[in-house]
Amino acid sequence: MHLFCVILYPLLTLLNMTGRLLFTFCSNTAASELLKFF
Question: Per its UniProt entry, which superkingdom is the organism in (predicted)?
Answer without folding.
Answer: Eukaryota
